[in-house]
């Protein structure tokens, strides 16, 4: 039996645990740190529900529970605190994104994991999804030539969750660059084969989503009202945000995310281009298309199987984490990837707040 210890057993980490167990039934949750034991216990795999023990801290979980690996699924503002503590345990770790919400937290993680004796699998399922992997293979094979430009969009059809659930608390999320774009900046950097080094960003706050307590009499049909979501002055998640990206290779990119999209208007994907061709894909359309720039060349298309969590990425992450724990593989989404993404997201947030280009801090200690 492989014993898993989980810190923060919410819905997201429970889905990852289920995927790990589905991949290898020898994995069992034996210890949990979560203040809401009743809710957490309901989310546990049925085989573990009655046997798992709850602990008051990570230290007690490790000392008394003796897990073989750890998973961190707390709310966002606590990810870094537990990740720093987990580095000292020497245990393999699955870490939810964003791995940090402040520059101080991110630097703390980088220092803590500098000499760590174990690996981290960061929750970046888009990077290892079927479409992204197909795109990476084609780009590496020269389908577009040297990547010169990247265009990515994320029109979120379920954006209300960032205003009508706990995500509405800006002090927890740190804003939607960190909450959402952390995925996209990661896969863009992965496809470009290069870190993001400079960002110019802007955001819109409080035009669409407004605090219900500030609602004017009669309301406004162009506004969606929610309670306790903050204001642009006190801090709040954005209605939409965009960023210009510069990569270390010299390639340039544009990214936009919108949180008031609904229904079939959803989009999430990218267009990458070079001298020799253009590659386009969208996860919701579940399609990839390569258009060579040579005259009279026939475009190619690829469509992976459908019906998987995070477009197939969750199953890949779960299998990779299982293999990392068993010493069979290296992490496909290592802590360095998590840090690269969060540094870029923090730069984007700072740029949007100041109206200036911001250089992205680079990972140096890993």
Descriptive notes:
47% of the residues are buried. This protein has eleven helices and 17 strands. The chain is an alpha/beta fold.
Strand order of the largest sheet: 16-15-14-13-7-12-11-8-17
Task: Report the CATH C-level class of the largest domain.
Answer: Alpha Beta
CATH hierarchy: architecture of the largest domain: 2-Layer Sandwich
Overall morphology: globular
Helix content, binned percent:
25-40%
Between the first and last Cα atoms, what is the distance in angstroms? 32 Å
Helical region count?
A: 11
Mean pLDDT across all amino acids:
94
> Which spans of ≥5 residues are poorly predicted at pLDDT below 50?
none
Instruction: Assess the beta-strand content as a share of residues.
Output: 15-25%
Total domains: 2
Count of strand segments: 17
For the largest beta-sheet, the strand count, sense and barrel status come to: 9 strands, mixed
Output the structural class.
Answer: alpha/beta
Provide the succession of SSEs. Answer: EHEHEHEHEHEHEHHHEEEEEEEEEHHE
* CATH fold descriptor of the largest domain: Dihydrodipicolinate Reductase, domain 2
List keywords for this structure.
single chain, 366 residues, alpha/beta, Rossmann fold, Dihydrodipicolinate Reductase, domain 2, 2 domains, nine-stranded mixed beta sheet, six-stranded parallel beta sheet, 17 strands, 32% helix
Please sum up the structure shown.
With 366 residues, this protein is α/β, with parallel strands linked by helices.
Helix and strand topology:
Elements: E1 2-7, H1 11-23, E2 27-33, H2 37-43, E3 53-54, H3 58-65, E4 69-72, H4 79-87, E5 93-95, H5 103-112, E6 120-122, H6 130-140, E7 149-155, H7 161-164, H8 170-173, H9 176-192, E8 196-204, E9 209-211, E10 224-226, E11 240-247, E12 252-258, E13 267-273, E14 277-282, E15 287-292, E16 300-302, H10 313-325, H11 335-354, E17 358-359
Parallel strand pairs: 1-2, 1-4, 2-3, 4-5, 5-6, 7-12, 9-10
Antiparallel strand pairs: 7-13, 8-11, 8-17, 11-12, 13-14, 14-15, 15-16
